[in-house]
Amino acid sequence: MAAQPPSDISEMAFLTIAEVAAKMRVSKMTVYRLVHGGDLPAVRVGRSFRVTEDDVNEYLRKSFYNAG
Question: Is 43 helix (H, G, I), strand (E, B) or coil?
């Protein structure tokens, strides 16, 4: 259920795993688990991964729930 890429790839903002971890306030290992588990779409660049900022925001938006 990955997001569709925009028509102009140059408009996409890609984040490193470390940047995603900092934004989500989790460890890098947690982000790797999300990527490898298919919960967070990523692009492989050489030996590293890049995640679009839109995909991170969408994942966080879907993760909210009412506790109360």
Answer: strand
